[in-house]
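A sample follows:
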Amino acid sequence: MSFDFWWLARFVDEEEVGSVSISFARAMAAGGPSAAGLLAIRRWIQNEPCTAARGYMSLPPSVKQAFGGWYKDFIWAFNLPGFQVFGEQVASQLTEDNCCRFISIRRCSPAAVLWQALGYERASRLPGIYGNLFIPASEVATALRVVKESYAGLDLNQATARAHAWIADSNSLEQTREVIELLPVALTEATQRGKGLLVVGRPQI
């Protein structure tokens, strides 16, 4: 079965902060990555120099086998149970006014693509949890500063090529770049509008 993965970003008005905050907290409380997912992330960190240079899909079969099939577990590690349900609710509430970004890619969670693009050191400094975040308007400027610091000095073309090696068989280079640019672009727009920001990732059959 083939999956699409959505990454949704929507603006949050002041009067919505209370309800969105409660829903986001419930999603977080529903659980983090599985044991297999956490192990896959650790293996990705350990093998990052190799995967950053070539991308998993281009590795020799013997190397893939040595990794113990962690690639699939890595992709799914970022799809937290609570945010799968919450993401469906968020998608149903999107309007022309509150929708900031809607990204759909095939066969790989956007957060996994982002981590592959940025590398662990940069990705681990990002606000939120595994690509999901809720930032009220009063904290958006701070979150934007953190993201800019995490991206400082990043070669966007190299990062895009590195991440695209993972998903090139099903997605375009432009889709990969959209994933990498979502957080800085969305937070910048939220700052300009004086709005909060909600970002949620989920798989979609």
Remarks:
- Residues 173-193 form the longest helix (21 residues).
- The first strand starts at residue 4 and ends at 12.
- The chain is about 60% helix and 15% strand.
